[in-house]
Amino acid sequence: MRKYSVGGLVSVLVVLVPVWVAALQLEPVVSGLANPLFVGHAGNGSHRLFIVERGGTIHVLQPGASTPTVFLDIHTKVIAGGEQGLLGLAFHPHYASNGRFFLDYTRAGDGATVIAEYTVSTNPNVANPASETILLVIAQPFTNHNGGMLAFGPDSYLYIGMGDGGDANDPDNRAQNPNELLGKILRLDIDHPDPIGGTRYSSPPDNPYYGSTGGRDEIYAIGLRNPWRFSFDRLTGQLYVADVGQSAREEVDLVTLGGNYGWRVYEGFLCTNNDPTLCSPGNYAFPLFDYAHAGGRCSITGGYVYRGVQSTLPQGTYVYGDYCTGESLACNGTSQSLLRGTTFSISSFSEDEAGELYVVGLGGTVQKLVSRTMTLTINQADFQTGETLVLTGTATPGAQEQRVDVYVALQLPDQTWHFLQRDGIFLDVAWPYGTNWTVATVSKVLFQHTFDGREPVGEYTWALVFTDPGIAPRLQDALLTPFTFSP
C-alpha cells in the first residue's frame, strides 16, 4: 500500500479495489414543446407530470410515456411573450378528492395577473375549461417582472410570487410598499372565502399586515424584485425563493413570515443606491446566498432542495440554475458549485412525487436529472519495465444510453495532461512512449499498455470525466486514480 498526493489530497491506493464516480446526466423525458415554463405533479399518487406552456396550454404526461396530451387549453385568455403568459400551476393538497388546481396567468387585453381556480373533469386527464373561478386580479404597470410561481405550503395555504411590476429599478418603489401586492410573496387561504371582504379566499390571520395593521392582508413577505420560482423543502418546510436581480447580483432567500428582502434598496448583499439613505442592514433579511453577473450569468432560475430516493444528489442539496448560461448549479448550505452545463435556457426546475428533479428548457424540452456511475479499475499500483497496465471502466446499466461523452485523460509525471480517449476513440496520437495501447468501446473504457522503459519515471494519474456533447471536459470534476512507473 502506498500513499499519493493528488490535487492536495492524500489518498490511499489499494490494488484491484475499484473506485467510482457519479455522473450527473440529463435524461430526456419529452421534447417538441412550445416554450415550457414549469412542470408539476398532482400529488395524488398517479405520478403524472403536468407541463405548463407559456402560450396557455397544460399537457399531461403519463408515467413512462414520451408524448403528452392536452390537459387544459386557455390560450384565448392569455397574453404570451417575454415575461407574460401562463406562468404558474399548483394542485390543491387534496386534489385527489376535490380535483381543484390553481393557475397564474397574464390576462389578454390588459396584461393583469390573474390567479384562478379550475377543476378536473370526469376524465382525470382532462380539466374542465368552463370551471374557472377568478380569485384575484392584480394590475401590472409594465409587461415585465410578473413573477408567476404558485405553490402550496406545509400549512396548506396558497403562496404566490409577485414581481415588482417593472420597469427597471422599481420606479414606483412598489416592492417596499405594503399597500401594494407587487414585489411580494402572498399567502391565501383558498378553502375559506371571506364573506365580509367578498373574496373567494381569506387571508390567514397571522399574515403580517392582516386586519388593522397598515398594509394588504394577503402579504406574507415584502421586498422582492422578480421571484422566478420558489419551493418548499419537503423535509424542513423552509421556503426557498430565487429572486432575479437587476444588473449585478442574483439571489436565493429563505423567506419567512413578515420578512423584508431588501429590493429596491438592496440587490443581493449590495446596496443599490436607489435609496442610499435606507441602506441600513439591520432593517432587512439578507439572502442565503447570491452570485454575481459574471461569465455570462445574468438571471437566476430557482429550483428545489433534493429529497429524492434515487441518490441523484446528496440529500439537502439546493438545485437552481442560470437562465442565461444554461448552467445547473447547487448549494450545499455553505458553498455554491456547478453541477453541469447545458446549451439551453433553463426556464424552470421541477420536482416529481418521488422528489426527483427535472430541468425545463424554454426551447421545448423536459429532462430528468439522473446519476449514473462509472467504476474505474487498475490492475496494480506500481509498474516496471515489461509489466502491463490494464485500466477498465464499467458503466452502470443505462449510463451509456444517454447522450454523454466519456473522456479518459492521463497526467504524466511532469504534470501535463493528455486526453487519450473520448467514447472509445483514441485522441492523443502524440503519445510518444510506445504504440501498444488497446482501446475498447465506451461501455468498457479500457487501456492496456506494456511499459518498455521509455516512459517517464514517477507518478501518473488517470482521470475519468463525463460531459455533455459539445461541452469541454472539466478535470476538476474528474475521478482520479494514481499509479507509478519505475524501470
What is the element layout, followed by pairings?
Blueprint: E1 2-6, E2 9-13, E3 19-30, E4 36-40, E5 49-53, E6 57-61, E7 69-73, E8 86-91, H1 95-98, E9 100-106, E10 113-120, E11 127-138, E12 150-152, E13 158-162, E14 184-188, E15 219-222, E16 227-232, E17 239-243, E18 249-255, E19 266-267, E20 270-271, E21 289-292, E22 300-305, E23 318-322, E24 327-331, E25 336-340, E26 346-351, E27 357-361, E28 365-378, E29 382-383, E30 388-395, E31 405-411, E32 417-422, E33 425-426, E34 438-439, E35 444-450, E36 458-467, E37 479-485
Summarize this structure briefly.
The protein is mainly β and 487 residues long. The chain is built from 1 helix and 37 strands.
Question: What features would you describe in this structure?
Answer:
The protein has 487 residues and is mostly beta strands. It is elongated. It contains one helix and 37 strands. The protein has two domains: 2-23 and 373-485, Immunoglobulin-like, CATH 2.60.40.1930; 32-363, Neuraminidase (6 Propeller). The longest helix has 4 residues, at 95-98. A hairpin with a 5-residue loop joins strand 26 and strand 27.
